[in-house]
Amino acid sequence: MNNTNLCCHPGAQHVSLLVLLCLFHLMGLFLNGFSLWVFTCRMSKWSAGTVLQFNLAVSDAIASPATPLLAVYLASESQWKFGSFACQLNIALLCAHFYGSVFFLMLISVHRYIAVVRFNRSSLMKRKDFVKKLCCGVWCFLLVLGLSFGFLLPVTTDDHKLCLSIHQKNRTEAYIAINFMLFILGFIVPLIVSLICYSCLATSVSRINVSSSQGQSIKMKSLKMIGICLIIFGLCFLPLNVVRTVLVVIKKYYPKKCELLLRLETAYYASYILGGINCCLDPFIYFFGSHNFKKTFRKSLRIIRVQQDRENRTESETVSYSVNKNVVYTVTS
Known about the structure:
Layout: H1 15-42, H2 48-61, H3 63-75, H4 83-117, H5 128-152, H6 172-205, H7 213-253, H8 258-276, H9 278-289, H10 291-332
Helix pairs in contact: 1-2, 1-3, 1-8, 1-9, 1-10, 2-4, 2-5, 2-9, 3-4, 4-5, 4-6, 4-7, 6-7, 7-8, 7-9, 9-10
């Protein structure tokens, strides 16, 4: 069985995967960069929910340095050209991005449940200082996790210089162990917690009196948040974890099925791209989950629009002045 692990080699990926990979992550970088600017430069008062949303935006932005490296790697037919340290850093960044997003989405669901359903009871999740410490704990855990995976999965240089590839020789057992730990602790547990919180939240808001404008606003905002979070879990994180699990199992028990492995590898990269869509969807959580962010966001857009109109008006007046000056000069001559 160990000898048969040598039979398969990575295949070239279609250029459409590279285009979609760069497109979605570029959109996510723009949206989350703007969101981080709103959080840090435009919002003066932060609540516990704002702290969680800010950390979610940071975890999304972390994927940006890793995306160009992965795009070049795929374009080079899985030939890693950046050295061992860059590979290990890339693994750490991807781990912090995907599972940081999952953990902070879970904490946002818990906070939303407590804020709406148990609004009249005291809770640590309502205290900003406690939430800050909780976020620091999550980042420490992600740091240890990323560094550990980077240490366990260095670049291999047997036939290709491979980084984070199922075709790396003598890494199958490590991929099996890491995958199932991430699948259970990094996806199943947060998903179950989020589903429980949002189920209770949906049950609670369904009983809200919608005859008042405030009750209708709370109900609609909560339902939109529930819908967006469930879409993120179902569209972005479920395919990634399921396809990766199937891939490592096939590699472990059917290593000679190279054609199947190559198809699953392509499916994995496609699910990775779907995972990147969460960077584009998370800003909707900030928009629907925080009235302060929503108000500041709209105010920031108005300020940017006014500045652009002012610049366009100034440019137009400058051009008009230059034209009139030339006309006067011509008539005088």
